[in-house]
Design a protein that fits this description.
The structure is a single chain. By secondary structure, the protein is of the alpha+beta class. Helix content is about 35%, strand content about 20%. The protein is built from 10 helices and 14 strands. The strands form 3 sheets. It has a 7-stranded mixed sheet with strand order 3-4-5-6-7-8-9, with helices on both faces. It has a 5-stranded mixed sheet with strand order 11-10-12-14-13, with helices on both faces. The longest helix has 23 residues.
Amino acid sequence: MKSDFLDTPESGFAIEVLRAGSRLASQVRAESNLTVHCKEDNSPVTVADMGIQAVAGKFIEKYFPAVALVAEENTAGLRKPDENARLEEIVRHVKRLIPEADPAAVCTWIDRGGGEAGELFWTLDPIDGTKGYLRGDQYVTALALIRKGRVEFSALGCPELLLACHEKLGKGVMLLSSRGKGCWASSLEADTPWEKLSVSRCEDIKKARILDSCDPGHKNAEKNAMIKRLLGSHHDPIGMDSQAKHATLAAGGAEIFFRTLPEHDLSCREKIWDVAPGAFAIEEAGGRVTDLNGNPIDYAAGNILKNNPGFVATNGFLHEKVVAAIRETVFPK
C-alpha cells in the first residue's frame, strides 16, 4: 500500500481501534461466560460490544476530538445500580488496553458514541454480527467516516475471516478503504504487506456466488429463494454473519449479496453503521451498492437509512440483472 494512505489520522485511528477491538473481543470470549443482554429492540449486546465502543470513544479523542462518533451502544442500562457487576467486567477488559480506565471514564467513552449524524462524523458498529461472535463464527468491527452524506473512508476488522483470494494473509484481516484510493487488506495482528482488493470479474449470472445472512430475522427467506431461482444461479447461497460478507465480496470471493425486508417488518430500514463501512469497501474494490429499488444509499438520512429499503451489493457487472429480479419478486406490479 502506498505510504500516503497509511500515514493519515484516519488510518491511524482505524488500525488502533480494530486491533484493540480484536484483542478485547478475544479476551472476553476466552475468559467470560459471554452473558448476553437484550436491548429494547431485542438485539443482543455483550461485554465485548460495550468494551470495544469504549476503546473507540477513547481513541477518537486522540485523533479526532472535534468529530462526532455515531455508534450503536450507550450506557442507559449500564449505569443502573444492578448493572455494577457488568460495568466492572467491561472496565476490567478495557483496562488491559487502556490502563487509566475506570467506571466513570468507560461510561464517558461509550457515550462518546452518542454523537449526531451531521455534516461530518464517524460511525461505528463495535461488533457487527453479535450472534456470530457468540457462536465463535464471523463478526466485524466496522468504522466509516462520512462527510456531507458521502463516505470518505471505512475500516473493517474481521478477526475470524480467511479472506477469499488473499488466503496468505491468514485468518484475521482488516480492510481499509479511502475514496479514490481503493480497498486494501492486511493481517489484523501481524505487520504483513497490504494487498489491494478487487471484486470478481464474473459476468455469467449462472456462475455467480450469492452471499446470505445467517440470521432469519434479517431477511425474507422465501423471497430470497425466489430471487435466486429467477437469477438461475447454480451455486448454493453462502451463509455468513456480519459485514464479513461485504469483505468477501470486495475480495472477489462472491458476486452478489442482497438483504430483503423481513416478512414480519416490511418497514424495517438499515442502520448506518450496518451498511456504510462494508458498502464503501465494496465500491472502492470496484463493486456497486444500492437499495432494493436500485437507488443509491442516502447516508445523509441520519442513523436510520429511512430512504432506502433493503440492500443490494454486487461486483457491478451483474447489478442490473439482480435488481431486476428483486423488483419482479419483492415489488411486483
